[in-house]
Amino acid sequence: MSIQMPEPDRSVLARRDEIVAALRNIVPGEGVISAPHELRPYESDGLTAYRQPPMVVVLPETVAQVSAILAWCHAQGVKVVPRGSGTSLSGGALPLADAVLLGLGKFNRVIEVNHADRLAVVQPGVTNLAITRAVEDAGFYYAPDPSSQIACSIGGNVAENSGGVHCLKYGLTTNNVLGVELVLMDGEVVRLGGRQLDPAGLDLLGVVVGSEGLLGVVTEVTVRILPKPQTARAVLLGFPDPESAGACVAQVIAEGIIPAGMEMMDRPAIHAAEAFVQVGYPLDVGALLIVEVDGPAAECDHLIEEIARIARDNGATTLRVSTDEQERLAFWAGRKAAFPAVGRLAPDYYCMDGTIPRRRLPDVLRRMEEMSQRYGLGVANVFHAGDGNLHPLILYDANLPGELDRAEAFGNDILRLCVEVGGVLTGEHGVGIEKRDLMPDMFSEADLKQQQRVKCAFDPDLLLNPGKVFPTLHRCAELGRMHVHRGQVPFPELPRF
Amino acid sequence: MAILRPTTAQELCDAVADAAASGRRLEIRGGGSKAAIGAPREIDLLDMRSFAGIVDYDPAELVLTAGAGTPLAEIEALVEGEGQMLAFEPFDHGPLLGATAGAATIGGVVAAGVAGSRRVTAGSARDHLLGLQAVSGRGEAFVAGAKVVKNVTGYDLPKLMAGSWGRIAAMTEVTLKVLPRPRVSTTLIADGLSDRAALAAMSQALGSHAEVSAAAHLPAAANGGTAATLLRVAGFAPSVEARCAMLPELLSGHCLLRRAAPDEADRLWTAVRDASPLDEPVLWRVHIQPSHACGLTEALAPLDVRWLYDWAGGLVWLAGEAPADAVRAAAAAAGGQAMLVRAPRELRAQVPAQHPRAAGVMALERRVRRAFDPAGVFEGGRFLGETDAD
Q1: What is the mean pLDDT of residues A11-37?
Q2: Are residues A496 and A400 in the same domain?
Q3: Which residue does chain A place closest to B153, by CA atoms?
C-alpha cells in the first residue's frame, strides 16, 4: 500500500450534503447514491488492493446531465472520478474521498450499426463484447479483445486504450476508434473525430484515447468493425526453454507472418494452468507457445505449416495443431485460465504489465528469477509474445504482514527492468495509480511536464481524476511559465548553422 | 527569409527558444515537398535535414528508429530490403505539387499524416508512429511514446504529432512500427462501373472474407474514358489465390472482375496515389464516410469538377474550379472534411487549407498547441484563420 493519494479537501468534505443535493437536482431519483453501505460496491476497481469509498456516486443517463454535473463541479471546485465498468487493473477508477464518482453504466445503448461503412456508434457503457454481439449477425466483430471483454465497457477501453491477445495483428483501441463525443470538465460537449478516416485538425481523439479519464468524459464512441475471420486455427508448441521459444517467435515474424495471437507461458504458469483445467499441456517443457492464425482456410493451412516448420527448426519438443474448434478452444483454455490458475498457488497474486523488446526476453526472465529469490516470492509469466507485452504474476499472501509491500516492490523492480532494457511500464493496463510513481523511471521531468501541459489544455483546474498517472501535481499556471534563458543570445545572426 | 540549420538537439533548442523570446516565427521544414500546401508565406525556416540517418532497425522487433530528416526513399529502400514495409504506404507529395520526387522526409510524412491506399485497412501515420524525440515551441527537448510496438504509458503524444503539420514541436527522431511486406499482391479490376456501382462493390469487398487491403475507383473521366475499379488482395500466395477466387462470385451482382497485369496495376495504383489523372490546378482531398461519397460527387458534378475515389470511397480526390465554399459545404453536409491540397497562390491566400472545425474544437486545438508552443513560434500563417497566437 505504498501509493499515497492526494489529501482530501476538508472544505469539500464539509459541503457533502450540499453537493449531494445539487447532484440530485441534476439527476433525479436513484441516480445519486450517497448512503455509506451503497457506496461500498464502488470503493475499488480491478486493482483491489486499493479501496476508498467515494464521497458520492452519480449515475447520469443523458449527455445533458453529464454536462451539467461537470459544469457544476467545475464551478464549485469539486473533483470528479469517471468510471465505466470498474475493471481497470491499474486503479484508474479508484475513487477519492472528496470526489464525485461519475458512473457511465446507464449509457448502455447501441445507437447505430452501419455494416456498409464498417462502423458502429455506441454509448460508453456498452461492454466490449456487446459491440460484437450487436454486429455479428452480418458477420462482423469488434477486434480489440481485452480479457475482461464480457464486463469492461467501451468507454473504459477508450480511457485505457485497451488491447488484448489479438492486438499485434488488429491493433489497440486507438487503432479501432473513429470518433468520440467528449464532455470537458467545464461541461462543454465536443465531438472529436467522426465517421471518416483522418478528420481535419489536430488528432485530439488520438490523445484522448488512453488518457485514463483525465481529459474528459466520453459519452459516445464510434468504432470500426471488421468482417469476422472465416476460420481460426491454433498450434500448441512446447520448447525446452524460453530462449528457444523466443527464437521461434522472432523467426515467425522475420518470415513475414503476423499471427492473430502468439502467447507464451513459462514453466510455473504451464503447471498451474494444467493443474487447474487439465487441457493436456506438456509438463516437461520450459516454455509453451500458443500461436493462432485466422483468415480463409487456405491461409490458415499455409501458415500453420510454415509455423510448424519454424518451430521444428527452433527445437520444439511438442507440436500439436488444432484439428477442430473444440481443440483450438482447449489450447486457449489453459492460457485464459492462467490468472485464476496461478491464483490457486497462493492466496493472492499481483499481475504486472510491462513491455520489452522481444530480443531481451531471456535476459529479463533470468533477472526476474533472481528477483524472485531475493524477494522470496514466486512468479509465473504469461506473455503476449508477438508484441513483447509481459504479464508476470507475483504470488503473495496479503494476510502476512509486509508481504503486499514486498510484492509491490518486486513488481516495481520488474517494471524498472522493463524500462532499463528499452521497454515501457505498461503495455495495456494503464498507469493509473499503480505505476504512477514509476513514471520518472521512464520519462524525464521535461517529458512529464509536457504531458501535464496537455492535461492543462483540457482541465486547467486539475479536477478530473486527479492523483492518477502523474506522480507530481503541478499547478497549470506554474507549468505554463516560460523560462527564457536570456543573457547570451544564441542566434545573433540567423543563418549560423 | 533566413534558413536555420541546427545540427544538434541543443542547437535546435536554442534556435526555438530564441525565436520564442524574440517573438519570431519559424516554419519546420524537411524536404519541402509539401511546402506548396497552405497559404503563401514569408517566414524563417527551420531545416531539419541534419537530423538524418537510421538510428536502430531490428526487423524481428518490427521497429525502426530514424532521424526525422531521413529521406522517405532511404527508409523505404531499407525496409524493403528486409522484406518489410511502412504499412501506411506513405508517399512523396512532390509530383502532386509540381516538383520532382525524392525530397520527402520521414518527419514531414509523419507531420502531415500522409497515408496511401492501404490506409483503409492498415491505418495512417498516426497508427504506426510509436515514439519520438522533439523540441517543443518552448525550446525544450522531450520524448513521447517509446520504441516498442505496444505501449500505453502516459498520454499518446505521438498521435498528436502525426498530422500536426509542424505546429506543436520539431521532431528530431521518430520510431515507427514496420510490418512484413506481402509476398504477393494481386489487383482485380472491374471495368466500366458507375460510381454508385463501384462504391457498392468496394463496400461489399471490404466487408467480406476476401480481406481486400485497398480499393479505389477511377471514373471514366479520370481514366481515359473507361472507369476502373481496383481491388488489391495481398499476402501469402495460397491465401491470395483463395481470396481472389472469392471475389467474382461475391460481386457477381455488381460487376465482372479481371486480373490486372502487374504493370497495369502499378500504373493505376500510382495514378490513384498521386491523383495524377486530375491535372487541374485546384485539387482537394475530401475525407468522408464511404456511403456518402457518391452523394458528394453528384452534388458537385454540375460545377465542372472531376474526381477519383480511394480508401473504398473514404477519400475523394476532387479537382476543378468549383467555389471553395461549395466544396466545403458539400463535404460538411456529408459529415466529412475537405482539404485544399493544390491551388494557385491567389486562391491559397484566401482559402484555408484545412477544413474549419466546430468553434469549441478549434479552441481546444489552440489550447493544446499553446501547451507545446506558448509563444506561437510554429504558427507561421500557413493555416488561415487558425493562427491568432496569444
Answers
A1: 97
A2: no
A3: A426
Where among A311, A339, A367 does a domain terminate?
A: A339
Dist CA B166 CA B355 (whole Å): 17
Domain contains A437: no
The answer to whether residue B152 neighbours chain A at the CB level (below 8 Å) is: yes
A131 domain residue, yes or no = yes
Can you list the domains of chain B with their CATH numbers? 3-180 (3.30.465.10), 184-273 (3.30.70.2190), 275-374 (3.30.70)
- Inter-chain CB proximity A197 and B160 less than 8 Å: no
- Residues A154-195 pLDDT 10s: 999 999 999 988 999 999 999 999 999 999 999 999 999 999
Domain with A315 in it: what CATH number? 3.30.70.2190
- Regarding whether A67 and A35 lie in a shared domain, the answer is yes
Please check whether residues A92 and A208 belong to one and the same domain.
yes
Q: Would you put residue A428 in left (φ > 0), alpha (ψ -120 to 50) or beta?
A: alpha
Those residues whose C-beta lies under 8 Å from the C-beta of residue B10, and which sit 6 or more positions away, are: none
> A448: which chain B residues are within 8 Å (Cβ-Cβ)?
154
Shortest CA gap A442–chain B (Å): 9
Do residue A180 and residue A52 come from a single domain? yes
pTM: 0.96
Write out pLDDT tens, residues B186-198: 999 999 999 999 9
Task: Choose the final residue of a domain: A312, A339, A366.
Answer: A339
- For chain B, what percent of residues have pLDDT higher than 70? 99
State how many domains chain A has.
3
Residue type for A100, please? V
Q: Contact at 8 Å (CB) between A96 and A6?
A: yes
Confidence grade of residue A494 (pLDDT, cut at 50, 70, 90): very low
Angle formed by the axes of helices A242-254 and A361-375, nearest 10°:
150
> What is the distance between the alpha carbons of residues B275 and B318, in angstroms, rounded to a whole number?
9
Contact A435, A47 (CB under 8 A): no
Terminal CA-to-CA distance of chain A, rounded, Å?
53
* B177 grid coordinates: 512500427
**For residues B190 and B212, what is the distance between their CA atoms, to the nearest angstrom?**
14
Amino acid, single-letter form, for residue B209:
H
Residue A105 shares a structural domain with residue A167: yes
Residues 6+ apart with CB under 8 A from A124: A84, A104, A107, A153, A154, A155, A156, A158, A218, A219, A220, A221
Q: Is residue A350 part of a domain?
A: yes
Mean pLDDT of B95-105: 94
Residue B385 — pLDDT band, cuts 50, 70, 90? confident
Residue B390 CA: distances (Å) to CA of A6, B303, B370, B374, B377: 33, 40, 9, 8, 11
Contact A421, A363 (CB under 8 A): yes
Domain span at residue A412? Answer: 346-430
A contact test, residue of B50, B58, B148 with most A CBs within 10 A: B148
Q: What is the pLDDT of residues B272-319, one digit of tens each?
A: 999 999 999 999 999 999 999 999 999 999 999 999 999 999 999 999
Per the rule left: phi > 0, alpha: psi between -120 and 50, beta: everything else, A213 is left
Q: Are residues A372 and A267 in the same domain?
A: no
Query: Which residues touch B94 (CB under 8 Å, ≥6 apart)?
Result: B33, B100, B101, B102, B103, B104
Closest by CA position to A204, among listed A216, A196, A222, A187: A216
Is the separation of the CB atoms in B319 and B205 below 8 Å? no
Residues of chain A found within 8 Å of residue B314, distances taken between Cβ atoms? 196-197
DSSP 8-state assignment for residue B283: E
The reply to whether residue B154 touches residue A429, judged by beta carbons under 8 angstroms, is no
Residue in the structure block whose three cell numbers are 464511404: B290
Co-location of A102 and A251 in the same domain: no
CB contact under 8 A, B142 and A494: no
pLDDT of residue A483: 61
Tell me: do A224 and A239 sit in the same domain: no
